[in-house]
Design a protein that fits this description.
P-loop_NTPase; alpha/beta; globular; 428 residues
């Protein structure tokens, strides 16, 4: 067991371009544990990767830009549990499907009438893909509930879950109008993601655990992909990181940028932080605002964060929230301004902090400090950018990157799941 002296969770709040990224990169540069950095945009990932390359680091790094579809690692998959205990196997299979289903729902406002039906058909489609004796990439999900297509027959013929097969075969007995009313809401949910090239190109047979084992640093950049694909990929990596630490009892630093804006701060994540502390799991959450987070999650964040950093905030509501964190510990009873006066002064200061200046609360102490400003390692313009592009080209030529090729179930016949011939048939 690892004796952990690391910080459990670091919460970083501040408006854009206030120096948050520089402070995080400075910390990660000296990190000895494995790092998984998730960035929905490219503010953190690009600078971190550039600093990593130009700094001469020898760590093995995987840099996945979701907008690239020519070469991509195929880590989005749905695996069937091989556990010997039936109940444990059932639990693991349900959990695997939930990792895909929850991001698919995302923040869509599904009304009370359609939601149960959408959840039912989404789960049935996921079961068809999960319980296959022939290889089935995850972007085939919409075909599993369209009985008028030849792809539907292929998927059901190779599905080993008979209860699901019987249930979906009943769709073929419906009239076209009835079928449209029955499955159209679910198709509207599945098809945007399953038709997105960024999602298609990352459906494959790689295990996320294997990727984390092989690399010291993994960076996932979502810039240029659709919102739904970004949420699916980042939430999938978040839960896979938790699974990795649970299974292998190894330390890991998980960094999530824009965590609140992309609905990535969940109860499961915060619960895992406390549970996995003993193995050296550390969570760094970066966000522009906490006012969009539910009050329940916000309270949990403030209670569990061992270190809170606040740069200049962009709204009065955020300034009031953060002043409660720093102001209570800074209260001076001898001050003539009193509590309300000091609170107003702190709120005003939090909204006018210079770039790179931050308030910090760490283990009961509150102080103000200057965040390090990282400079380009090379004085001549463009050298760092050129080095970074060369490094990306070298990375995407690695064995974990493959050239995707789109296909439908009807074009794949008689190949066994997981075989080399199977995978090469659609991944080039």
């Amino acid at each position: 067991m690892i004796l952990c002296l690391y910080l459990l969770m670091i919460l970083i709040v501040g408006a854009t371009r206030m120096g948050k990224t520089f402070g995080v990169i400075d910390k990660l540069t000296h990190e000895t544990r494995k790092i998984l950095a998730l960035d929905p945009q490219d503010s953190l990932s690009r600078r971190f990767f550039q600093h990593h390359i130009c700094g001469g680091s020898t760590k093995r790094i995987l840099y996945d830009q979701l907008r690239r579809t020519d070469r991509a690692p195929g880590f989005i998959s749905l695996w069937e549990s091989e556990h010997t205990d039936p109940l444990q196997r059932l639990r693991e299979n349900d959990y695997e499907r939930s990792l895909i289903a929850e991001p698919l729902y995302g923040r869509r406002s599904l009304d009370g009438v359609s939601r149960p039906r959408i959840a039912e058909y989404t789960d049935e489609a996921l079961k068809v893909i999960q319980f296959q004796n022939a290889y089935a990439p995850l972007f085939w999900l919409p075909f599993a509930i369209q009985p008028h297509l030849p792809d539907f027959e292929f998927l059901l013929r190779h599905c080993t879950h008979q209860e699901t097969v019987d249930r979906l075969q009943s769709l073929a007995k419906l009239s076209p109008g009835q079928l449209r009313n029955e499955v159209s809401p679910t198709l509207r949910l599945l098809e945007p993601a399953c038709r997105d090239p960024a999602f298609i190109s990352r459906c494959g047979t790689l295990h996320c655990d294997d990727l984390i084992n092989r690399y010291d640093t993994l960076i996932v950049e979502g810039s240029g992909a659709t919102d739904q694909t970004i949420e699916i990929v980042l939430q999938l990596w978040t839960y896979k990181a938790i699974q990795y630490v649970e299974r292998h009892k190894r330390s890991l630093v998980l960094v999530i940028d824009e965590a609140a804006n992309w609905n990535l701060i969940t109860k499961d994540l915060l619960r895992a932080v406390a549970t996995l502390e003993k193995y050296g799991f550390e969570l760094i959450l970066i966000t522009q605002s906490l006012s969009i987070v539910s009050s329940e999650i916000r309270v949990t964040l403030f209670q569990n964060a061992r270190r809170v950093e606040c740069y200049r905030v962009g709204s009065l509501e955020d300034a009031r929230l953060m002043s409660g964190i720093f102001g209570a510990l800074q209260y001076d009873p001898d001050s003539s301004g009193g509590v309300s006066g000091q609170g107003k002064m702190l709120i005003q200061e939090l909204m006018t902090l210079p770039v790179g200046t931050r308030y910090v609360r760490e283990q009961g102490h509150v102080f103000k400090e200057q965040s390090p400003i990282l400079k380009d390692s090379y004085a001549w313009p463009g050298i760092s950018e050129h080095m970074m592009q060369d490094a990306i080209q070298n990375i995407i030529q690695g064995a974990d990157y493959q050239t995707p090729k789109y296909c439908t179930p009807a074009s794949v016949r008689g190949r066994q799941r997981g075989s080399n011939a199977d995978e090469s048939s659609w991944r080039g």
